[in-house]
Amino acid sequence: MDNNSKVVNSFRNFLIEIGELSYFSARFFKELFNPPFELREFFKQCYNMGNRSLLLVSVTGFIIGLVFTLQSRPTLEEFGAVSWMPSMVSISIIREIGPIITALICAGRIGSGIGAELGSMRVTEQIDAMEVSGTNPFKYLVVTRILATTTMLPILVFFGDGIAIFGSALVEYFKGNVSFLLYFNNVFDSLQFSDLIPTTIKTFFFGFAIGLVGCYKGYNCKKGTAGVGLAANSAVVYTSMLLFIIDFIAVFVTNIFYG
């Protein structure tokens, strides 16, 4: 097979993948509004995803706040602009750094877990057994997990942003003798609704993308047990690329509406 044929086949497979993912997402919205509603499974998935990711998000956010402030402080000191530190750090973290870093962490933590879990259920024929018993596996397994990731990711992002800003305030407290009260007053004075609303909206899309791709890869897992690892790995890779695309579109649209 020559290189041109490989390129054509790769492009064709890419288009097929996009089409199947679009059909999968359309089926999600169709099943979303049809009873019965698996509320118990939904809350269980919310707890599992949120509680088990909380420590990782907290540690990562705290380190981001520390490192970002420590790296930025010498440059601001050269220009005598250390007083801009609270506003610069808070706006940067809330607008961009916090949401995308938290989403990438959750893609690795949650997306791979969903892909591996549903993939193992597929290859061990548990999903087929649910269909035979009269249970709707798509609604019970897929809809609840996508809704849970869409709901929990914004909460994790807000929590991670708060921890990151606290880490920055801690550096300023020890390095610049800035009280926590003064630091957070400057933070809230610099933030506007135009910083919070677009960020909040795009975090819902981040969560939806993580749940959708993870469920799609796991639910359609093939090739036996070897496919479970492939489903988990590809879920993280595809989700990471999709997150950056969504982030670019969100920033582009935000600049149109907020200038």
Task: Please characterize this protein's 3D structure.
The protein is an all-alpha fold and 259 residues long. Helices cover 87% and strands 0% of the residues. Helix 2 packs parallel to helix 5 and helix 5 crosses helix 7. The radius of gyration is 21 Å and the shape is elongated. 36% of the residues are buried.
Element layout with pairings:
Blueprint: H1 3-32, H2 39-78, H3 85-123, H4 126-132, H5 137-175, H6 180-190, H7 193-219, H8 226-258
Radius of gyration: 21 Å
Overall average residue pLDDT: 87
Sheet of most strands: none
- Summarize the amount of helix as a percent range: over 70%
Strand content: under 5%
DSSP helix count?
A: 8
Q: Which structural class is indicated by helix and strand composition?
A: mainly alpha
Q: Which residue ranges are poorly predicted, with pLDDT under 50 across at least 5 consecutive positions?
A: none
Overall number of strands:
0
The dominant shape is: elongated
